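We emphasize that the prediction below concerns an isolated chain of 358 residues; any contacts that depend on oligomerization or on bound cofactors are therefore not represented. The input was used exactly as deposited, without trimming of termini.
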Amino acid sequence: MLYRFLYALHDTYGVFNVFRYITFRAVLGMLTALLIALVLGPAVIRGLKRLRVGQSVRGDGPERHLQKEGTPTMGGVLILLGVAVGTVAWADPAEPSVWLVLLVTLGFGAVGFADDYLKVVRRNSHGLSARVKFWSLVAVAAVGCGALWAMPGFDTRLAVPFFKNLRPDLGALYVPFAVFVVVGAGNAVNLTDGLDGLAIGPVITASLTYLVFTYAAGHARIAEYLQIPYVPGAGELAVFCGAMAGAALGFLWYNAYPAQVFMGDVGSLSLGGALGMAAVVSKFEFVLAVVGGVFVLETLSVVLQVASYKTRRKRIFRMAPIHHHFELKGWAEPKIIVRFWIISIILALLGLATLKLR
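Result of the prediction step, given as a token string:
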């Protein structure tokens, strides 16, 4: 909305014409969210400590995690604030997809907040029941994806990486597919958030990657040149993705090892849901599995561990998610974190390569 006010001045002062460019506003959104996270971070941490909103550690987790007991959690509210302000200030308020993505992000954050709150009240690592948590996320995603599907001209065809002419049309089935993508992304980031800064690093990488994807999808000439689906209005999501990267980067300042604050489910679920919605709107749903490969790996490790134990009574990993496996192998926590970040950067580059390899 600040964008509209400032851009209106361009007839009188030519310098304000720069606000018409999405790239410029994406940078402003990133810087705005970054400053909010950096400036308000200490106050939020002090407030969480005053309210005794401390992390409850799983009793069956690695022993070294016991020292994290009591570290302030629910720091994801700081990320949400940065994303919301950065987006509302610099994105075009006339673009409905921006509001849908932001509302789903806040909705996932609300479910995560309820989960974190119950953990704090009960003083253990159990919050909402798995069933309530899952169906709450499904409900939020269904509202957002359903509204997106109902928008005039929305394309229900899928864009398959590497195949420019393969565009299967799902029709009404696109909604459950999109819900699966959004809820799956939310839970995948949530599972990854187990070490100081482990999840937020790949989130930053994925956010910046989808800044490129959304801008390209929303630019008719670039979309035509790259032979990707053109999605009118998707370019404004570049501002949202920029704000998400900025807020996450600011949060990392306080979440880096050893963490002063954890994001909690309010942060991890909302960030995952945001990435899922950005992928759905920009028609880069399948590429999210590549760009967010670290999240996929963490999720698969849990699925395989559970399946193996139920069928064979044997574990594949020493502990799941897989980052705990490496902990129990003796890897130092910072080494695991940085190596997972490196992998996420490599996967992001592979995801970007799909723009031309088709």
